[in-house]
Amino acid sequence: MADERDDGKIVTTFLLNTCRLCPRLTRTAAAALIHGNVRMNKHKRQDHKAYGDGESIPILTGSVAEFYIEPMLSLLGDVDVMYYSNAMIAIPRGHPPPTQLPAEFHNYVQVFEIVDSHLPGYVYLKLRYLMTQCSDDVKYNCVTYDERYYLPNKHHYKRDQGVIHGPALLIDNSDISQLSVDNVDCVRCLVWPSQAADWPARHRNYGWPDSATVDHAVSNGCDVVGVAHRQCRQHEWISNHQGRLSFSRAEIVLINSWMPVQQIVYHLLRYFMKTQQLTDCAENSGAGTMSNYHTKTRMLWACELKSRRWWTGDLNLVRICVELLNTLSVWLTYTRCPHYFVNNCNLLDNSFNVGSTASQLMSVEEDYLSAWLINNYIGQCAQLCPDNIARLFSEVSTSVELQNVVLEIVRWRLSNSLYDMCWDADYAEMLIPAWLSNCFLYIDVHSFAYWMSELAKIDKRLTVYLSAVALLHVARKMSRQGFNEDLVDIMSTVLGQDFSEFCSFLSLRRTELNTSELVELLQKSAVERLTAYRQSMVPEIAPIATTVTTDFEALYAYKRGDYQRCLQLSTQNVHTLLHADVMISVYLYPVFYQLLDDDLVSLTALPVIVDSECRKKPHESVAISQLTLSLYLMTQCQLKLHPSVTSLDQTLEYIIISQRRHSCDRTLDLLTLKLIEHKANWSAKIIS
After folding, report:
1. Sign of the C-alpha dihedral, residues 161, 166, 167, 173?
2. Distance CA 218, CA 458 (A)
3. What are φ and ψ of residue 509, in 5° steps?
4. Which residue from 155, 176, 165 is spatially nearest to 35, judged by alpha carbons?
5. Residue 110: which region, alpha, beta or left (left: phi > 0; alpha: psi -120 to 50)?
6. Residues forming beta bridges with residue 91, ordered by sequence position
7. What are the E-state strand segments in 549-650?
8. Alpha carbon of 522 to those of 391, 395, 490, 491, 594: distances in Å?
9. Are the C-beta atoms of 188 and 249 separated by less than 8 Å?
10. The predicted structure's pLDDT at residue 173
11. Considering only Cβ atoms within 10 Å of each terminal Cβ, which end of the chain, N or C, has fewer?
12. What is the predicted pLDDT for the residue at 597?
């Protein structure tokens, strides 16, 4: 490129304009929540002398929870989920056992004392107390456990479930969500650990983190994950019992308090280190190489030790990144990476394979990093844009041309924000019933409450959708298994104040309960909520796609035999959708089968049989457009209400138009349209 240009300024301007604030609803957020909840079902603990059954409670950690910016190039290839048993807690050594616990904890809880090892930050968990909740009271009785027992750190992962690295089990769920899941078991400590007692009161020259943020971080306590230090993995007993203090909860609080520029810098550092293969792909896997945790630690120290002016004065993201990368080089050279929370804890040691990494990082200068980011970061962003923009970037030869194409990328990014949000909502609608139908077989009060709480943080409208799907799940279970108290508990939690509507049924003796009537009420309530959800999403969807809000209402009318009402709604929907450029999908997972007739249920299985691509992406086999679904209901109702030849001819014309639109579309749409075309033609011949 012939002319002089300020690449650092171009990179800075580009990132400030494309790293937008995360909408609450994103594909990654939805996938993280669903994946995090899959394991939240009752299971027997296999630990020695287990004290009652427990449930795994998920905590979303890592990038999904830490970042509130959404860069064009995301590094979110997996979801980090920690799980703690609600039948165990840890307490600092010498700390009295609690008399009360949060609501999610079990009636019977083992209390483990955190015992220091010879390595700072690494500990053992010694069983110290057994707690039993008093009947009709929130308090616990506590007895001392006198035997010598240390909790093993071995996990009961099966090799065929995923790839084990360190304390984590990496599970590939890319067939549904394009994401994999890093599962880490831990033991919850409700109070701040004594090993990090100095951190809250540490003197801070520049006021970060402020006292409110410190208090918030401290109030979350910590966790203990089961992994031994790499120096101890040859020692049989230590390697099987040592654990590491995890401050993931505090890190989420701190990183969420950063300025946007600090989050962008952290993202850039991670992107550079990963792309240049300077960090291990699996954090803390024990390979003796740098991990993202070292980069995170460098950022935490920089945010505390650098003034606000250093970050924002004459803002140059490249300059900031260069200085931080050079500092990482110094840390590697002197084998010194101080833990951010625990004093005298070094995250590097002589077992690390430093190699040429230190010299590579020290050699990074502003001109080099600016050019690298333009070619490897902005260049990759250009590939996400339409072909004309990508072509313009590949042909850049002057500073003016580069600035112009960067401006085009920014414009495209901003114009697609609403489009992205629309399809992220569609993605969430797919994931929730998918997991309820196929994987999450043990929905209970605790898990539902967790889902509702976490979904409310993303988008409160999704809680309406979840409650509807949960009611259908309960209705499905009840129709198969009959009435039981667990289902009643879920119903009362889902329905809240509306539960009084069902009291007349629930007050009857079980032998007198009319299960079919109760199932119908649940279905009715679910459909009302699905319709309310559709209506709430219209403002976001309308500028991007044409949608109707009565598709589930029409399904329910058809299921109940109210064909006239179904025909009225479906005909209106067909007229609205017939010539729409873009429309949303309905995902007919098993939880929705109770609203479908046998023909449509059978059709959902055919795509997997006839289309090999559907086997790779099972969610596509159940996706049907609102137009196709409305045409199906319209045709079926006409046939049941003895149509005229004229009305059937009109319907056939609609079907032909839809078939042209779906000629290269999903298999379920094509099969459904072919079926109703055959039925309409056959009926027309009989009538004529």
Report:
1. negative
2. 24
3. -70, 150
4. 176
5. beta
6. 113
7. 585-587, 623-625
8. 55, 60, 12, 9, 11
9. no
10. 53
11. C
12. 93
Longest Cα pair distance anywhere in the chain, in angstroms? Answer: 91
Q: What's 583's DSSP letter? A: B
Q: Tell me how far apart the alpha carbons of residues 103 and 395 are, in angstroms, rounded to a whole number.
A: 61
- How many whole angstroms from its chain centre is CA 442? 19
- Exposed, middle or buried by CB within 10 Å (0-12, 13-18, 19+), for 148? exposed
Q: DSSP string covering 86-117, please?
A: TTEEEEETTPPPPSB--TTS-SEEEEEEEEE-
Tokens encoding 304: 């505390």
375-386 per-position pLDDT tens digit = 999 999 999 999
**Can you read off the two tokens belonging to residue 148?**
């010598």
Three-state helix/strand/coil letters over 455-471: HHHHCHHHHHHHHHHHH
Task: Give, for 600, the enclosing helix (H) or strand (E).
Answer: helix 598-610
* Nearest CA among 583, 589, 586 for reference residue 633: 586
Q: Is the pTM of this model over 0.85?
A: no
Instruction: Note whether 587 and 429 are within 8 A (CB).
Output: yes
Which residues are CB-neighbours of 270 under 8 A, at least 6 positions away?
75, 292, 295
Which of 581, 589, 575 is CA-nearest to residue 624? 589
Look at the block and give the residue holding tokens 């945790």: 293
Buried-exposed string 334-366: b where 16+ CB fall within 10 A, e elsewhere: eeebebbbbeebebbeeebebeebbeebbebee
Angle, helices 317-333 vs 292-305, to 10°: value is 110
- What burial letters (b/e) apply to 516-540, b meaning 16+ CB within 10 Å? eebbbbbbebbbbbbbbbbebbeeb
- Report how far residue 73's alpha carbon sits from residue 360's, in angstroms, rounded to the nearest whole number: 23
**H-helix or E-strand containing 405?**
helix 399-415
Cα–Cα distance, 427 to 30 (Å, whole number): 8
Beta strand pairing call for 88-92 and 78-85: unpaired
The residue among 600, 180, 620, 582 whose CA lies nearest residue 430 is 620
| Residues of the chain below pLDDT 50 | 1-2, 40-52, 156-160, 174-176, 281-287, 439-441, 509-511
d(Cα 194, Cα 114) in Å, to the nearest integer?
9
Tokens representing residue 186 in the block: 């831990």
**Nearest alpha carbon to residue 406 among 2, 3, 14:** 14
* DSSP per residue, 248-282: HHHHHHHHHTS-HHHHHHHHHHHHHHHHTT-S-SS
Per-residue DSSP letter, 623 = E
Looking up tokens 């600090």 gives 262
Reduced 3-state DSSP string for 471-527: HHHHHHHHHHHCCCHHHHHHHHHHHHHHHHHHHHHHCCCHHHCCHHHHHHHHHHHHH
Residue 162 CB coordination number (10 Å):
18
Residues 6+ apart with CB under 8 A from 454: 33, 36, 37, 60
Domain positions in the chain are: 39-257, 416-544, 545-688
What would the DSSP string read from start to end of 148-185?
Answer: --B--------GGG-EEETTEEEEE-HHHHS-EEEEEE
| Six-digit token string for 338 | 């101080």
Is residue 11 within 8 Å of residue 35, measured between CB atoms?
no
**Which amino acid, residue 101?**
L
Per-residue model confidence (pLDDT) at position 159: 45
Residue 78: strand pairing partners:
180
Helix (H) or strand (E) holding 125: strand 122-133
pLDDT in the model for residue 327: 95
